Amino acid sequence: MLVSLRKAALSIMVLFIALGGSVLAETPRAAAAGALELYTPYLEWSAAPGETVSYSVDLVNHGSATASADISLETQNSDWKYNLSAGGREISRIAVKPGETQTFSLDLDVPLKINKGRYSFTLKADQASLPLVVNVSEQGTFKTEFTLDQANMEGYSDSTFTYSAVLRNRTLQKQTYALSAGAEDGWDVRFQLDSNSVTSVEVDPNSEKTISIQVKPPEQVKAGTYKIPLSATSGDTTANASIEAVVTGTYDMKFSTSDDVLSTDVKAGAERKLTLVVQNTGSAELQDLSFSSNTPTDWSVSFEPSSISSIAPGESKQVQATIKSSSKALSGDYVVSLTASSASKSANADIRVTVKSSVLWGWVGILIILVVIAGIYYLFRKFGRR
Q: What is the pLDDT of residues 345-364, one digit of tens each?
């Protein structure tokens, strides 16, 4: 009986030691698994559709034994794509020594076609988890965008209008866009990429390219506002834009005599009237014209009318200039410079004026010569007989 009791006690002791050892053997593994922690300093990001959010994540082992874990990301739908990497390669499982940290990267792609809002994710390393949030800052699209920094330009008819446009490919495939402009006849529209003229351009998925647009109006274009539609087309995706060119016209004028003869004559102290013509040879209206002159000393010029309010493109108006020479002017050629001026343009007409001697002074000279001859003849007759 005593032997039987001893055997039973020994069996119970062996069983207890076995069970105790099993429990003790399982305890370190459980502790090691629960000792993993995921850490990143930035738990909530803001991003636009098509952007990639990148996280640097630490997996920390607080246990006393090496631990390994499967790495994964729980997303709300399959449109969100992600990549887990370390050392330049994709990973799915990490081992960490006790008391150490392993760092890996998480790249999360925001879908192009997505609603604006707040999206939550859970990064997992077995039992360890890390909640992440991405705030999508704007409504997403799945299309092409064609936008301009400044769609309106102003200049003269002989100016070259330069616009800067951005072509964005908000699709998942590389696109080759054909570029076109619906300008009126005579307008020269050129697309440039990297200073080279192009008719098409390739854009990678979720990328953009900056295009320069050079616009030159026709030579005889009238002042006004001109809209030019633009398009970028690739397969079933098209983006449209519009530019506006405000042509103020060119300012130019011709100022001359009615017969284009720039010479005349006048007697000293006398006046000479000239009919002058101001012609608007530009494409913009000339306004507030006035007249002035540059004359020799003691000469003067007056204009009638003294000013003109406006002259339309292609039209002309007359003005009469009265040139008065100095009474002390000697015979010879003089230059009288006449100027027509507006706020935006001016023109000169240089008139060569020949001063002629008065006929009266000619007769006076002849009379003096006759008197001198008569005096000599008288003296010769009177004293010649002696």
A: 899 999 999 998 666 556 77
